Amino acid sequence: MSAPLLLASASPRRREILRGLGIAFDVHPVDIDERALPSEGPRAYVARVARDKRLAGRAARPAGAVLAADTTVTVDGEVLGKPASDAEACAMLERLAGRAHEVLTAISIEFEERAHDEVVVTEVVFAPLDRSTIERYVATGEGRDKAGSYAIQGIGGGFVSRIVGSYSNVVGLPAHETVRALVHLGALAVWP
Length: 192
What we know:
Layout: E1 5-7, H1 12-20, E2 25-27, H2 42-60, E3 66-75, E4 78-80, H3 86-96, E5 100-111, E6 114-126, H4 131-140, E7 160-164, H5 167-171, H6 175-185
Parallel strand pairs: 1-2, 1-3
Antiparallel strand pairs: 3-4, 3-5, 5-6, 6-7
Helix pairs in contact: 3-4
């Protein structure tokens, strides 16, 4: 890459994953409308939001590679985004307790007028949780800015009894798929 990758995201978790992969990058958070469109399913939703973030990042840096991503949690086909309140966080965690849900992360990468868009899905299974455990967790504030109201890389990881798929996807950026796409597009000539 002639210039560092532009990460069109404010997510500290995505920065941490890229740093861990040894990929040089600059950060340029973008501000787009992340509301779901009427009748938009979860996959279409995260793919559109990631693409819109990439396009906004491209406008900020006309050359070089741009990476954007969006992560959401779904259960019963419904998107569980970031909670608007502690009460909403409790309600989300009650829905997730004792059952499986999916975490979807869309990545959208552009380099030299070629783009790669992909949605990665990981199944996460929560152990049963009682109301007092949920309330204590919500009070920590850890899940306030997270889709589904929890962080697998923090205290919330103690709720997870099993995952099927990419752990880094649940954190917010699927490492393998991101590296593979950057190499495929030529944005990373050699890795590692």
